[in-house]
Structure formats: structure tokens, C-alpha cells
Amino acid sequence: MKDYMLEVCVDSVESAIAAERGGAKRLELCSNLIIGGTTPTPALFCAVRKAVDIKIHVLIRPRFGDFCYTDAEFKIIRKEVRQFRELGADGAVIGILRPDGTLNMEQMEELVREAGEMKLTLHRAFDVCSDPMRVLEECVELGIHTILTSGQEESALAGAGLLRRLNEAAAGRIHILVGAGVNSGNLEELCRVTGLNQFHMSGKKVLDSSMKYRREGVPMGLPGISEFSIWRTEEEEIRKAAEVLERSPNVF
Q: pLDDT tens digits, residue range 120-173?
């Protein structure tokens, strides 16, 4: 088997099972994937942990929006890192910025201490930081294991140039995990143009709700998002992605 990472982002037990069956090596567990992900509940973590055998990294993000947090929000983040460590999570996915777009080193240091032996990923707060090369070096200093990034673009393909430079700058000191728009159809190209072998995807498909009675025009969340559409990881898409990585001449 080749040396690569295929991490699948999931927000349900059903998606977690599909990801593992498809060949994912690790999960990023969150809630509310449709808005970029927020912290999952302990009950969801425990249910997923019982359902799968692969490693689980937990997203710690208290709300939708930016990555500059109030004191109250930071206290919640710190407590959740500790809570999921105690529950047995393999890793935590974190990130805090200052208003000027720099990494909040003081708060990140506190989270590193709370994490103990868990692996840590800096999430896509990295993609809106003001100086990615500086933040990479700060992550190495902090002992962060992985940076999840699209190369500061809307999609990983668009950010391929920076991803390649990050790979060169990392020089094996920290993993660069490619995310945003990753799918089985573009993985081979991403491997080739970035030189990377670590990828993050959801492999989602949209399912129709099982509801028969439907009262339209009563939105419960963001405008334009149907209350009768459910996002779920598709096992076959993850299998195709794993097969691409296994046969790619750019993955060793």
C-alpha cells in the first residue's frame, strides 16, 4: 500500500461508516458541514467512535464565520479540546487568528497544552491568514502536526501554486493536507501539480429527505438551502479517490 493520507470530513454516523468502507484512512468529524463545519457533540463523537475503527480528528469551531474569537468563545474552545481528548479523540482540528490576520500564538499555545498527546491540525483559518509562510513556521514551532489548506484559494486546484511552495517550505517538518474541492476526478492532477500525497474531502452526495409532507417557504437556516436536502458521504466516491491514490505514479 502506498504512503498517502485520505481524510474524509463527515458530520454523521452514516457518513463515517461510508467513508471507512470506501477506504478513508482518517475522519475529520464535525457538525453542520453545510456551513463549513462546527464542533460536533460528544454524543455524536461517541457514536462514530463506536461505529468505525479508523482514526478520528475532531473539528473545534464554536460557530460559523471568522476565526477571531471572544474570550468567552476561547474558553469554550479550550474546554472542548480537553473534553474530546478525555473522550479518546485521536486529534483536534483548531485555529485562531488575531484581527490583523496573524496566528494568535498565545491562545494556540494554550490549546496545544490542552491537547496533550492528540495530533493537531491547523484548519482553514490558514487560508485567510495574512502571511502563510510565517504561519507555517509558527505551526512547526508549536508542534502542530498538519496544516489543512486550499492554498489560500477557493479550491485546491486554484491554489496549487502556493500548495507546491508550502510543500517545499515544509520540508517534511509538518504535513500539508490538501482540501477544498478535492474529488476523485481531480486527485491525480493535484498529486502531480502539488507534489503532495495528503488529501481531505467530503465525497458528499445530496439525498432527498424522507419527508412526505412538506410545508414549503418556511426556512430554518440559511436562505436558498432546502430543508429537504441531506448531505452524506458517498462510499463509492471515497473508493474511487482511494483507488486514484493507490495507482498514481506521483504517490509513493
A: 999 999 999 999 999 999 999 999 999 999 999 999 999 999 999 999 999 999
**109 Ramachandran zone, left/alpha/beta (phi>0; psi -120 to 50):** alpha
The three grid cell numbers given for residue 138, joined into one nine-digit string = 509558527
With beta carbons less than 8 A apart as the criterion, state whether 64 and 36 touch. yes
AA identity, residue 195:
G
- Global pTM? 0.94
The residue ranges of every structural domain in the chain are 5-247
- Which residue, among 252, 196, 184, 235, has the nearest Cα to 2 in the 3D structure? 252
What are the pLDDT digits (tens) for 163-218?
Answer: 999 999 999 999 999 999 999 999 999 999 999 999 999 999 988 888 888 888 77
Least Cα distance to 175 among 213, 132, 216, 144 occurs for 144
Using alpha carbons, select from 30, 33, 64 the residue that is nearest to residue 48: 30
- Amino acid at position 126, single letter: F
For CA atoms 203, 206, 209, 215, give the dihedral sign. positive
Q: Which CATH number fits domain 5-247: 1.10.3720.10, 3.20.20.380, 3.40.462.10, 3.40.710.10?
A: 3.20.20.380
Residue 91 makes CB contacts below 8 A (sequence gap 6+) with 55, 56, 57, 58, 118, 119, 120, 121, 145
- Give the C-alpha separation, 90 to 136, whole Å: 22
Q: What is the pLDDT of residues 2-19, one digit of tens each?
A: 789 999 999 999 999 999
pLDDT for the residue 252: 62
Q: Is 101 left (phi over 0), alpha (psi -120 to 50) or beta?
A: left
